[in-house]
Design a protein that fits this description.
This protein is an alpha/beta fold and 255 residues long. The chain has helices at residues 28-36, 49-64, 86-100, 114-127, 147-164, 180-190, 225-235, and strands at 6-8, 11-13, 18-19, 41-48, 105-110, 131-135, 169-173, 194-197, 205-207, 212-214, 241-244. The protein contains 7 helices and 11 strands.
């Protein structure tokens, strides 16, 4: 029998198929089905720090609304301990996935602040994540910010996270960097064990009738895989693991 086993981020996998971060991994039954269909590891959907901040602020506004009216109103408010914030639900889902399957489960994190990246990475490690993928995306909007500044911020972030956790850390990159081979080498020095090529650039559309920005989502195409394969070829000079994100993913109906 052919041995398809391989290594990724230092972990021995039974095969080369790793399910990338996708909402399809939210139901536990889907996670089990992915393992049954041959997935050797699963990267869970991303935890977004910005979303957590917005939801927390909205909850605080709702709970404090009307409390200035009369003191008795405080007694009608529910206990905050009864609320399960999004990151707690995410960590619980990670624990359930670990119980449901035998293959490695990786957490995916999209932070917004230096402290947030480190905090949530440590929480994922405590919840049992076998590794963590940092879902990074940097868009230059300041004319005074150089490309070196942006790379320096990313390298500092990776160094802080890898210094705070013991599990392997992978970095999902955008393709808008000047010298990707050089950056990948620097990421290795900063402690990253792998990189994923590439993060997708979701571009909004503009409605010329209403003069508003309209969010749009287009499924990826097979042709998008070519830049990933191109840069993976030139990144193999380092000892870091590189993996192309799937250009098109259609969930199988059967195994």
């Amino acid at each position: 029998m052919i041995d398809f086993s391989t290594k990724y981020l230092g972990m021995k996998l039974k095969g080369p198929v790793v399910v990338s971060s996708t909402p399809l991994s939210e139901p536990i039954d889907n996670v089990r089905h992915m393992e049954e269909c041959g997935a050797s590891a699963i990267i869970l959907h991303s935890l977004f720090e910005e979303q957590l901040a917005l939801e927390s602020r909205a909850l605080d506004d709702d709970l404090s609304r009307g409390t200035e009216s009369f003191a008795e109103s405080l007694g009608y408010l529910p206990d905050l301990k009864d609320y399960r914030m999004t990151h707690e639900a995410y960590l619980e889902h990670l624990r359930e996935c670990k119980k449901a399957v035998k293959i490695p489960i990786l957490g995916s994190l999209n932070g917004a602040t230096p402290g947030g990246w480190v905090r949530f990475a440590k929480d994922m490690e405590k919840a049992g994540a076998d590794a963590i993928e940092l879902n990074t995306y940097a868009l230059a909007t300041d004319k005074n910010q150089t490309s070196a500044d942006m790379e320096g911020q990313l390298l500092k972030l990776v160094a802080e996270v890898t210094g705070a956790v013991k599990v392997p850390v992978s970095v999902k990159l955008s393709q808008s960097f000047t010298s990707l081979p050089y950056l990948v080498g620097q990421l290795e020095k900063a402690g990253a064990r792998g990189v994923a090529l590439f993060n997708r650039f979701y571009q909004p559309d503009f409605d010329i009738e209403t003069l508003e920005v309209r969010p749009t989502l287009h499924f990826s195409k097979p042709s998008e895989l070519l830049p990933r394969l191109h840069w993976r070829r030139f990144s193999t000079a380092t000892r870091i693991w590189t993996s192309p994100s799937p250009a098109a993913f259609t969930p199988p109906r059967t195994c």
